[in-house]
Design goal:
Blueprint lengths: L1 E4 L2 E4 L5 H27 L7 H8 L2 H29 L3 H28 L1
Antiparallel strand pairs: 1-2
Helix pairs in contact: 1-3, 3-4
Length: 121
């Protein structure tokens, strides 16, 4: 919402807009490319696909790094989306803050668990 005071415009709000829009697109593109990479690796794998094949796909250090980056991207992508929904639809400040904290803890836990699974391979 903008209010005009003479020649000066007072703009209020969080001002996340363009930056978050861009982050959402970049993280979505990164996740899509990663998914395509994994699908191509599965398609061009010979023989039955079992645990050893999956472990082999994610064993190289570059793949672990890329998967780590995608896990963090997924968590941040989800955070931006959930935060925007909470800001738009949950009006009581205390409830919105509690839900944001829960979301951060939940996404952090999920990302930590995914990274732990990745490093156990």
């Amino acid at each position: 919402m903008a209010v005009n005071f003479g020649t000066h415009r007072l703009v209020v709000g969080a001002h996340y807009g363009l930056g978050d829009w861009l982050i959402q697109r970049v993280t979505a593109l990164l996740m899509a490319l990663f998914t395509l990479l994994v699908i191509l690796q599965v398609i061009f794998t010979r023989g039955p696909i079992g645990y050893d094949t999956w472990a082999g796909i994610f064993a190289p250090q570059w793949m672990k790094f890329l998967t780590f980056v995608v896990i963090l991207s997924l968590a941040y992508h989800a955070w931006v989306g959930v935060r925007d929904v909470l800001m738009d639809y949950v009006k009581p400040f205390a409830l919105r803050t509690a839900l944001k904290i829960f979301t951060i803890v939940w996404l952090g836990g999920c990302a930590g668990w995914a990274i732990q699974v990745l490093w156990r391979l």
